[in-house]
Amino acid sequence: MASLLFVFIANAIGLYLAGKFIPGFSFPLSAWEPFLIATGIFTLISVVIKPVVKFLLFPLIFLTLGLAHLFINMGMLYLLDHLLDSVAITGLFPLFLPSPLLSLIPKLLHNSPKTR
User: Fold this and answer.
1) From CA 7, how far away is CA 39, in angstroms rounded?
2) Strand ranges in 6-75 using DSSP code E only, listed in sequence order
């Protein structure tokens, strides 16, 4: 449960930053409810579908030395764009830019110093 909450918070931060600063990446930031729903759906995509895709594409990930992770993230964002009308990603560039961001934020949050 704690790891699911961690993934949800990391996705919320990443999607908020992407929606705020990347032109062409439209994400519901005006109200909390659509934002939390979209973040929850993206978290479910990340927790359920993404590991299966990573398992199936492991040879490609291995051959590209991990570069295929960016394309997997792009695919997950593309799936989110098609599932929700409130999310609009126009073009390839706004689809690519959040991918490193969504990969980096969980790593930064996980490696942050723990408070006692």
Assistant:
1) 10
2) 25-26
